[in-house]
Amino acid sequence: LEEECYRCGALPSSREHVPPKCLFPEFSDCGEHHRKDLITVPSCEVHNTAKSTDDEFLMVSLAGIIGNNSIGYMHKFGKVDRALRRRACKLLEKVLINRKTVERIEVGPNKFLEVLWGNPDSIRLSSAFEAIAYGLHLHHFKRRFVGAVRIYMGYLQYESGNSDVFNQFIRERAALDLEGKAELGSNPDVFSYQYSDKDQFGSYLARLKFYGGLDVYVAHVPEGISLPENPINFFIKAGIQTRVQLGDKAYVFNPD
Ligand SMILES: [Zn+2]
Q1: How many angstroms does the Cα of residue 53 sit away from the middle of ligand 1?
Q2: What distance in angstroms lies between residue 35's CA and the mean position of ligand 1's atoms?
Q3: Distance, CA 223 to ligand 1 centroid (Å)?
Q4: Does the bond joining 42 to the residue before it have cis omega, within 30 degrees of 0?
Q5: CA 140 – CA 22 distance, rounded (Å)
Q6: What's the rounded Cα separation, in Å, for the pair 56 and 84?
Q7: Mind listing the pLDDT tens digit for each residue in 239-248?
């Protein structure tokens, strides 16, 4: 089997962790083992170094977010806080472009969680998740993905007025597509994933789950496939009240 870079297919020069190793807490930080059989894929020089600068950014962005399980929080109090102190908060400013406020929430005796309200750098986050999606694809299907991926971060509140309805819609749509699909990953408290079957057009969905609570959806559209224009999207974008029926539930976009 000839090995190729998970991203571009060039000759690999090293292996890359998917997701980044720093997302997985060390035993010394939490007293539990969360680094079992970590996934690695071959990577070329370019896609290894390009990604490594994003790894710490991703770690700071994810650990400590409300909705995480306790592993995420513990990681936040250990490695993430050390990284933040070391970098004198430069890193934190990169995570949130427009930092608004910082609030402290007590989550245990003398343990506080700093919650940041602001606009996350979603473009950078998106590209970090894209890299994970490509790496995971090679690992899971034993072949490199060629085509387009679209990332939807289900845990973020978007500013668009339809954010809540849309999040709920995506979550339940994905739940239908992923029904009965195994949740894979050797450290499910940190990271697990599922793949759907191909739909009638040949595209498929992955759901990545971080720290038990943060969902990221990845739509895979393989090269050479064109999806039909979806009239529903057009109506929603145009601000027209649109009702979408999914199973026995209805979703109303752009309500009065
Ligand atoms: Zn490459």
Answers
A1: 15
A2: 25
A3: 18
A4: no
A5: 21
A6: 10
A7: 777 777 777 7
